[in-house]
Amino acid sequence: MQPEAIKALFDQQAAGYDRQWEKTAPIRQCLHFLLEPVFAGLPEDARILCVGVGTGAEMAHLARRCPGWRFMAVDPSGAMLEVSRRRAEQEGFIDRCVFHAGYVQELPEAPAYDAATCFLVSQFILDIDERAALFRAIAARLRPGGLLASSDLAADTASPEYAVLLEAWMRTMAGAEVPADALERMRRAYGEDVAVLPPAQVEAILRAGGFELPVPFFQAGLIHAWVSRRAAG
Fold first, then answer.
1. HSE-CB of 68 using CA atoms within 13 angstroms
2. Is the dihedral of CA 152, 114, 65, 16 positive or negative?
3. Which residues pair with 104 in a beta bridge?
4. CA dihedral of 205, 208, 214, 219, whole degrees rounded to 10
5. What is the pLDDT of residue 232?
6. What distance lies between CA 194 and its chain's CA centroid?
7. Residue 92 φ/ψ, nearest 5 degrees
């Protein structure tokens, strides 16, 4: 999808986004639960870069667990970022946040952050080189050895296993009360507007983006998550 189309899509969804996906919250909660040990070695005053922060769910989870951490929340959707800002205000950690309506490439290119999150973002970039460029932009803003926790939809769409998994995933989405016509659009989007790639290929893109040793730490349905470290040099 083109950046402006993605921005417009999430601007439209922002107000009801969390409510719409409430029934799939256990997936998100499990990802955040497993993120805790992944980031456990970070400093007590760590600075976290949240790329494509959306409504701020992972940022809020980390803020509750780690009262000394500070956050840079980045999202091209101003409407999504406003929901994230309200969440931070309501939960009492807004004084630890900076919000940027735009793209990570617009931030100063300096090693300012100890870790980053990038959840369900890079899958919307269809061009592999551009997808790697996103990760390079994140790496350029992490301190040496900084961690990236990233997740994307991933599968070998040419395999017979994918058909089985996709049907189960569509039933999961239907359980979240996604209308039948929206489910059909989602199914088409996975073949046209979302780059659902085999996990090994996503890991190769992470390496091309300046990260080493991508390690899977979570999978639920089509969602896969990795932790990787900014490569030296």
1. 7
2. negative
3. none
4. -10
5. 86
6. 14
7. 80, 25
Label residue 130 exposed, middle or buried (CB < 10 Å: 0-12, 13-18, 19+).
exposed
Contact yes or no for 55/120 (Cβ under 8 A): no
How many residues appear in the chain? 233
Element at 227 (helix H, strand E): strand 223-230
Distance of alpha carbon 16 from alpha carbon 6, whole angstroms: 16
Q: Please state, in angstroms and rounded to a whole number, the distance separating the CA atoms of residues 144 and 165.
A: 38
pLDDT at 22: 78
Task: For residues 63 and 105, give the distance between their C-alpha atoms in angstroms, rounded to a whole number.
Answer: 24
List, for the chain, all residue ranges whose pLDDT scores fall below the cut of 50.
none
Q: How many C-beta neighbours within 10 Å does residue 28 have?
A: 20
Which pLDDT tens digit goes with each residue over 103-121? 999 999 888 999 999 999 9
The answer to whether 100 touches 84, Cβ cutoff 8 Å, is no
Could you give the CA distance from residue 225 to residue 233 in angstroms, rounded to a whole number?
A: 24
For residue 41, CA distances in Å to 44, 48, 94 come to: 9, 13, 24
How many whole angstroms separate alpha carbon 231 and alpha carbon 208?
A: 10
Predicted pLDDT at 89? 97
Of 155, 194, 151, 190, nearest to 170 (Cα)? 190
Both structure tokens of 225: 């998550």
Instruction: Output the pLDDT for position 173.
Output: 81
Strand extents, DSSP E, 67-210? 70-75, 97-101, 113-119, 142-153
For residue range 26-53, list pLDDT tens digits in order.
999 999 999 999 999 999 999 999 999 9
Rounded CA Rg of the chain: 17
